[in-house]
Amino acid sequence: MVSLRLSKQLEQWLSRAARMAGVSKSAFVRQCIEDRKQSDESRPTAYELGKDLFGKYGSGRTDLARNAKKIVREKIHAKARRNRLRAGGETLRS
Questions:
Q1: Are the C-beta atoms of 16 and 6 separated by less than 8 Å?
Q2: Could you say which of 41, 64, 73, 77 has the lowest number of CB atoms within 10 Å?
Q3: Rounded CA gap, 19 and 13, in Å?
Q4: Is the pLDDT of residue 86 over 80?
Q5: CA-CA distance, 64 to 60, in Å (whole number)?
Q6: CA dihedral 51, 56, 60, 66 (to 10 degrees)
Q7: What pTM was estimated for this model as a whole?
Q8: Do the Cβ atoms of 85 and 92 come closer than 8 Å?
Q9: Domain residues of the chain, as ranges?
Q10: Are residues 34 and 28 in contact, defined by beta-carbon separation less than 8 angstroms?
Q11: C-beta atoms surrounding 71 within 10 Å
Q12: Distance CA 68, CA 14 (A)
């Protein structure tokens, strides 16, 4: 059993909508909930929407999760080296 409180405006709307549908307010609310449930169940999940894209633009690296900190550190150092080269600070070393 569920009970809920509605604003006066919402209560008036519910009464009118139920009367126009020819059902009780409880039956009207149940039907609205059932309609929403069916709508939610038929809606694709985020995974279903994107499954064709996942992994499509991979880096080719299989160690990203294990070596994330090391990889980020390497990227930062490489960027710093490029910036120093642009500024004329050092020669390129591999």
A1: no
A2: 41
A3: 10
A4: yes
A5: 9
A6: -30
A7: 0.50
A8: yes
A9: 8-45, 64-94
A10: no
A11: 14
A12: 55
Q: Are 45 and 51 in contact (CB under 8 A)?
A: no
- Within 13 A of 63's CA, how many CA atoms are on the CB side? 5
Residue with tokens 């039956």: 27
Per-residue pLDDT tens digits for 40-79? 999 999 899 988 888 777 777 888 889 999 999 999 999 9
pLDDT category at 93 given cuts 50, 70, 90 is: low
In angstroms, rounded to a whole number, what is the distance separating the alpha carbons of residues 84 and 94?
Answer: 14
Which residues have C-beta within 8 Å of that of residue 81, sequence separation ≥ 6?
90, 92
Task: Name the amino acid, one letter, at 45.
Answer: T
- CA 35 from chain centre, in angstroms, equals 23
Annotate 30-78 with three-state secondary structure.
HHHHHHHHHHHHHCCCHHHHHCCCCCCCCCCCCCCCCCHHHHHHHHHHH
- The structure tokens listed for 39 are 């709508």
